[in-house]
Amino acid sequence: MTQATIPHQREPNPEQLLSLLVRDEPRVLTRITALFGRRGYNIKSLSVGSTEHPGVSRMTIVVSGDRGVVEQAIRQLEKLHDVIRIIDHSLEKYVDRELVLVKVAITPENRVEVRQIAEDFRSRIVDVGRHALTFEVTGDEGKLTAFIEQMRPFGILETMRTGRIALTRGSNADIPGHVYHGETQALRPAVQIEQPREERAREVPNLF
Q1: For residues 10 and 158, what is the distance between their CA atoms, to the nearest angstrom?
Q2: Looking at residue 92, what is its pLDDT?
Q3: Phi (first) and psi of residue 131, to 5 degrees
Q4: How far is residue 197's CA from residue 146's CA, in Å, rounded to a whole number?
Q5: What angle do the packed helices 28-39 and 67-78 form, to 10 degrees?
Q6: Distance of CA 145 to the CA centre of its chain
């Protein structure tokens, strides 16, 4: 008896989550996104913000593709002078969050139901109109997607998502065991604090 052949279904590309510590200089974002564009890498989301170190920004990038794709991207990013450190979160335990604003159409008949669903998701109302409510929801990607799907039957007028941000779990904070610039450098601060000029002057031997 011949068994029927089941056609192979191609699985969707997995998502890879990277954090980059970069120098806060003009056109850094342009150079990094241009690198991804030239190589044909698909960026699903990108978030940029300041860090605890003045002059250093953090970029969180979600890339669609398999491991080979993300490893190629990392090798290219390593060549950029602006990139201080690269953290591949798929190799470490991490916590990630995302924020979404959702404007939902309301009527006198569905207002109570909409607010009850929003309460179940622990969302917050940030704007109230006669015909719409705007909600703020924070959580992981699954929670935000579920909230949007629950609100879709009522009529979504607008949405805006920030994109994912992430930090490595544990007391080591941003110093995971696997960093592409090398383990030794990973144990150093992201930015070396420059020695004050007065202290450097005192260390210079007096030749007179």
Answers
A1: 32
A2: 78
A3: -125, 10
A4: 55
A5: 140
A6: 16
Q: Give 161-177 pLDDT, tens digit per residue.
A: 999 999 988 765 444 44
Distance, CA of 30 to CA of 16 (rounded, Å): 20
Q: What are phi and psi of 8, to 5 degrees?
A: -75, 125
> pLDDT tens digit string along 75-113?
888 888 899 999 988 887 899 999 999 999 999 999 999
Q: Locate tokens 């904070």: which residue?
A: 173
Angle at 36 between CA 35 and CA 38, to 5 degrees: 65
For the chain, how big is the Rg over CA atoms in Å?
Answer: 23
The DSSP letter of residue 58 is E
pTM of the model: 0.69
Identify the residue whose tokens are 């940029």.
48
Cα–Cα dist 196/208, whole Å: 23
